[in-house]
Amino acid sequence: MKTGGNGISIAAPAKVNLFLDILGKRADGYHDLRSLVVPISLADELVLENREEGIDVWCQGEGLPAGSHDVLPEPAHNLAARAALLLREATAFPGGVSIHIRKYIPVGGGLGGGSADAAATLVGLNRLWKTGLPVERLMELGARLGSDIPAMVYGRAVCMEGRGERVSPVACRWPAGTAWWLVIVNPGFSVATRDVYARFRTGLTSSEETFRNAAFALERGDVGLASFSLHNSLEATVFAKYPLLKIVADKLKAAGALGVLLSGSGASVFAMAAGLDQALAIEEKVRRDAGPWLWARVAQVLPDGVMVAHGPLEARV
What residues pair up with 298 in beta bridges, in sequence order? Predict the structure, then answer.
């Protein structure tokens, strides 16, 4: 995050769900879930600038998958704009803001792009406007806008429960030099989260042991155990409607990935690698097999890092 006079720049990292279990449907229509969520180095870039009044949003896609530009949200419906309005109402701040977003995160890709932008807006404006809200209050405000936003406001590895409003930090004590590398593949179309949950009936539920193993792996930085413990209750539902995503997952496995999983409700699929060299090799092989239409990126898991870098993150490859 970088502040200068009248504005602030902030990176808004995407996320992946290393573990996602749907536990049941709630009386309010939402689903109870339990998920291990981590930020990654793929990030949108936001510049927030004070203005006397009004909230204005400018959004430009940068290297997005084919088709993503057609689904970029209208300014009035942009989650970042709604987050700014909510913070202004909650704090009675008298001014406005211009929000400039460079989007690198695929839209509707299960990577939390819109939620990341909203979270970054809450965190960034809280500093720019000097409103002084604690992170817990920012998370409460974020929960009004979307289930992923509280976790992304917190900005580190977390266990997310309920419909997303209960967030507990995962204490990551990774050995020095440990790094997790991912290959993220997006098919070039978006998946509507609401439609996925509407189709979901009873998916594959995990055992308590699988969750414990996944949490332990994340705490200790054990990429092998984490890859073995990957779980997403929504995966079968999404693969049934979008067979291409199952094909992509199979190609990633065939390319040598340690583990492969649908992120969130899709449409992105990610593969875990033993290191950067293997991640780059997997990306190259999948691109070669699938053709130039495929959108693929190598990214690093950031268990303790969040909205940190000004400009492109060094881990964006």
Answer: 183
pLDDT digits (tens, 9 = 90+) for 99-145: 999 999 999 899 999 999 999 999 999 999 999 999 999 999 999 99
Beta-carbon contacts of 277 under 8 Å, excluding residues fewer than 6 positions away, are: none
Task: Examine domains 2-169 and 181-300 and report if their fold is the same.
Answer: no
Confidence (pLDDT) at 314? 31
Taking alpha carbons only, the member of 148, 156, 163 closest to residue 263 is: 148
DSSP for residue 56 = E
Sequence-ordered list of residues with C-beta below 8 angstroms from that of 198, at least 6 positions apart, any chain: none
> Would you state the pLDDT for residue 51?
94
Pick the CATH number of 2-169 from 3.40.50.720, 1.10.8.50, 3.30.230.10, 3.30.300.130: 3.30.230.10
Question: Where do the structural domains in the chain lie, given as residue ranges?
Answer: 2-169, 181-300
- At the top level of CATH, the class of 181-300 is alpha beta
Name the pLDDT band for 225 (thresholds 50, 70, 90). Answer: very high
Q: Hey, which residues are catalytic here?
A: 15, 148
* Residue type for position 171: A
Q: SS3 of 235, please?
A: helix
In this structure, the chain runs to a length of 317
pTM greater than 0.85:
yes
